[in-house]
Amino acid sequence: MAVAANGFTLIDGAMGTELQKRGLKTGGLPELLNLTDPDIVRAVHRDYVNSGVDIITANTFGANSKKLGSAEKVEEVVAAGIRLAREAGAKRVALDIGPTGALLAPLGAMSFEEAYGLFRETVLAGVKAGADLVIIETMSDLLEAKAALLAVKENSTLPVYITMTFMADGRTFLGTDPAVAAVTLSALGADAVGINCSLGPAETEPFVREMLKWATVPLIVQPNAGLPDATSGETVYHVGPEEFAAGLGRMLDAGVTIAGGCCGTTPAHIAALRAEMERRTAKRPETPRKTVFTSGQRLVSLHNSIAVIGERINPTGKKRVKEALRTSNFDYILNEAISQEEAGADLLDVNAGLPEIDEPAVLERLVRALQAVTPLPLQIDSSDPAALERACRAYCGKPVINSVNGKEESLKTILPIAKKYGAAVVGLTLDENGIPDKAEDRLKIAEKILKTAQEYGIPREDVLIDCLTLTVSTNQALARETLKAVGLVNERLGLKTVLGVSNVSFGLPAREIVNAGFLAAAFGQGLSMPILNPMSQRYMDTVAAWRVLSGEDEGAGRYIARYADAPRMPSAQVPAQTESGDITSIVLSGRKMLIKDAVKAALQEKSPMEVINDLLIPAINAAGDKFEKGEFFLPQLMASAETVKLGFDVIRDRAGTGQVLSKGRILLATVRGDIHDIGKNIVKMLLSNYGYEIVDLGRDVPPELIVEVTNREHIRLVGLSALMTTTVKAMAETIRLLRESGADCRIMVGGAVLNEEYARLVGADFYARDAQESARIAREVFGRA
Amino acid sequence: MPGSELTIERSEVLRYLGYRGQALTPELEAQIDRVSQMCLEAAQPRWVFEVFPVEPGPALNGVRLLGEDIRRHLAGAAYCAVMAATLGFEVERVMLRLGQRSTVSEMIFNAACTALIEAAADACDGQIRDYARARGLVTGYRYSPGYGDFPLEQQRAVLGLIAADTRLGITLTDSLLMLPKKSVSALVGLYPEKLGVKRGGSSCERCENRDSCAFRKEGYGCGG
Description:
The structure holds two protein chains of two kinds. By secondary structure, chain A is of the alpha/beta class. Chain A has an eight-stranded parallel beta sheet with strand order 1-8-7-6-5-4-3-2. An eight-stranded parallel β-barrel of chain A has the order 11-12-13-14-15-16-17-18, surrounded by six helices. In chain A, strands 20-19-21-22-23 form a five-stranded parallel beta sheet, with helices on both faces. Chain A is globular and about 90 Å long. By secondary structure, chain B is of the alpha+beta class. Chain B has eight helices and eight strands. Chain B has helices at 10-16, 26-42, 68-73, 90-101, 103-133, 155-161, 164-168, 214-217, and strands at residues 46-53, 59-60, 63-64, 79-86, 137-139, 171-172, 178-179, 183-192. Chain B has a four-stranded antiparallel beta sheet with strand order 1-4-8-5, sandwiched between helices. In chain B, strands 2-3 form a two-stranded antiparallel ribbon. In chain B, a hairpin with a 2-residue loop joins strand 2 (59-60) and strand 3. The model of chain B is unreliable at 218-224 (pLDDT under 50). Chains A and B meet through helix 13, helix 25, helix 26 and helix 28 of A and strand 1, helix 4, helix 5, helix 6 and helix 7 of B.
């Protein structure tokens, strides 16, 4: 690799500032200047070459087909960009890749694969044009950064540097901090990771120091020439060349080896930076390697710390998880995820293993859905390599794979996936001969897994071992062997261990007691990551206690905060109420605390159907009447609906699902291009409490999908929502396609920009001005069953 | 510019929830206050504005502004401030999560965010007014792509003028929705004082939702 001086690599500075100096306006796409004003672009590059840089960044930041219109145009602009840099005398030319300009799901509308496809086109154009390396920069979204990085690694052999941009509070716009970025992008195989844009050298420095603690690859830094004042009415960069170079000098001393400039920097800034490099020798202090997992917004480190893995997202023995996986209506699972997080889980295990579903597709969707509602890193749990790969690809962050084992077949299919996606991997101590009884034999399998993983390039800190818990009531000696194996793996191999605790007590009464005892014993052997039900107070008590005993909870601060007020207040006594008047008044006042017991009491005297038809439905009807009369406003109606829903949950848990409710099935969707879905969610909530089954396709839904599901599922009422004038067109298109397909359905529409007249214009049967009206429409369509 | 000094008024949240003086339970009042507090904690209100001379056309830094209405609006303006404000993405995450837990909380959170982004836009507007006053100028009301015949399609160019993507993280979807959703963009004209431009007043005439607005159906505007 070419180096400027003493092991450093010097990159150029801003293009935009220099173009403006030469009289070019900021409007329009600067990449097109490669075609319209090549002399000016080349001249800017030449000034930077004369400042002594090693790498010239080609003027290709926004060269993707979303911005430029076509892949051909991308190829043309990239070819010109690389050529101009080359003609300016660059030693090495970097293909520059910025964000697509559109935001990825779940907060945006672009899919991961669409973003990947855009980056892929740019990368292929860069390879064809002869770029020497790729710089991915100014990323705010870790998932988009991952899409770009995968696009480079899967479509070229070029080295790739990647930088994200942080606000003054140390997070990107999407909430990723420097540590998470450093860990995740290092693990994904970037050749250098770092920070660019947004801030000046002084503001960037602490974030660079943080990254140095976590990155396992060289650090790259390209700050702005200061932080412009947002309220001065103009954009001015105040930091001059000397101050800029001095600021970067401190970061070079700290261990940064690749540096350049971003907005507001000039050839003079870069020349001054070169002088700083010539005064020093590049060196990167050794940092201890740590076992660490990330999501886009969270880092979990096992450095002097244990981490609890929540086990609840698993269909084994759980009816409602199975149903959620079968229907891909994940609401129940997402609530379980949030509950486990609130109960203190540090990671969540995610298992979608049901024989009758397309596990790879469902696991991928589930991982995306979970990441939209919880910041906890995920442990992706499957025996199907295809499911693991798709879920790892979709995952934002550095996940854990659960699991590989000592069998050759498992090692050679799972480890490459872990390597490619930078995942940590759990190795089970079993092989072709099953689970050895003796701890020493389990240790041997752990050694084999570690050795093989390292051969695949997986660092040892990313290998976790599960010594496997067996049922104590079957063979009482085996629990001790498992504990012993945990200790051996911990001491002899220095690897972190994972252990599911629940199986140990199978067949015994009061299982939590045995499990908690086993858990404490395993902690004593050095267990790092128990897999358990965090909603169990007893387990979490043991965890809290161990954190004090091990010294992780310094000064026992967390323990005291949690237990200082124990014993807790006894929960309020709820009088059993059985009369319908009571349920109605509970529902009308939205007192959710009371409804479950009231419904349980009613079920002692009435059948589930009677409770629904005689108590719950009349109660929600009473709330609807109040809303129609103006005595309730919408939040009050919805509070009643939520209260009723809890009542339904009681019945569902008792009677099983399916047969309880279905006055008819209604499809709901927010139309393509629209991601405002609160109105749709309100309608869904209310209709489901009138006893209708809702098929919720979500937001930004393509018309074709709505048509397909409506016909396949024989839906008789379709509800479409749109908030923007621009997306009403998509609504009209959806209705047209539904009619053309011959679907035997009625269509209601709603949303902020609609009214009776618009509803007619787009071809709907009904205009639902509010959620209550949608319930009236449903009654009209399905009758008063 | 972080707007940590901004507050959320309960009366504003209720107004966005369509409140018409119904009897409130203490539980609902407490929920509104609790959720509004969550909104304040999650929100990262930020804004930027940049002032451009109004070029003939009218145009700003070479970007031609289309439509009669914006031309009329900027008539006589020497300068035009381009502003954008946003609450950031964390509120959207919280809202997705709340939506899993409680539709009522989701609704309240949404209303609280609307109140807060309006407050942020007002704060930015106030700074533009100060900027103008210091130069002997007065400001007009905020005018956004999509108002009147000022095409929504110019949203991208307007945001581009102030680099709202790199400075605030605001991006557009293909259907021209701003993300984060709780974002505002606007042009604010800076006029010589003698023109006597009127500020404020009803803005319904320039609102893209005027035909379908629930507040207007009730006989009054949203106050925007």
